[in-house]
Amino acid sequence: MTEFIRARSSEQKAQRLEEIKNVAKAQFATHPYHEITLTTIASDLGWSRANLYKYVTTKEEIFLALASDSYNAYIDALMAALPRECGFTTEIIAEIWAGIANAHRDYFQYGNILYTIIETNVSVDRLAEFKRNFYDGTTRLFDQIEPLLGIKKEYLEQIFIVIYHQGVGLAGNCLNNPLVQQALSEINIERKPIDFKAEMREIILMTLSWYQKK
């Protein structure tokens, strides 16, 4: 629990925002999104809601920032692991990419609520900043991996989006939802565990291989 001291500088404000994001991220790891509120976040911080409102207006603003942070970490990891001149085969690239996706699964988990919830309750300015960061990141990544993949640059955004949405779906299916487990038990259905990394590897390999033939 952090004693609330109002930020007096941009550095202090950034520190407060990090504290807010850390609490929201921790709650998201153990609670459904709809159970997380500004009240629960303020409570874990040891702040009042009024103090929390000095930094954020909605819960979605916090999760938009978390989604942006997770995206940046994902892009940085891909760029570090797939240098332009590495000469990796498509199979190795798929294996590396899947490992990074698995290590950054939170990026895909935020995707389950990004379009329909988070992006619907934030300011235009914050959303524009989020989108600008997204396109800046993909531009950097595409410039680096285009010669490595041997795929026309015009297809790279499609590839990235296909892999992303497949990852979002798999990440959602990998969550251990007690309500779903109970419902399946009542109808005598036993669902096999999903190997996120292995499934992502197959999806990435299939997607890259298909576009390399175009």
Secondary structure class reads mainly alpha
**Domains counted in the coordinates: how many?**
2
CATH superfamily of the largest domain: Tetracycline Repressor, domain 2
Q: For the residues shown, what is the average pLDDT?
A: 91
What series of H and E elements makes up the topology? Answer: HHHHHHHHHH
Largest sheet: none
- The backbone outline, from C-alpha atoms, is globular
Find the count of extended strands (DSSP E, 2+ residues). Answer: 0
Q: Level of helix content?
A: over 70%
CATH architecture of the largest domain: Orthogonal Bundle
Radius of gyration: 20 Å
Determine the strand fraction and express it as a percent band: under 5%
Give the CATH topology of the largest domain. Tetracycline Repressor, domain 2
The CATH class of the largest domain: Mainly Alpha
SS summary, helix count: 10
First and last CA, distance: 55 Å
Low-pLDDT residue intervals, each spanning 5 or more residues: none
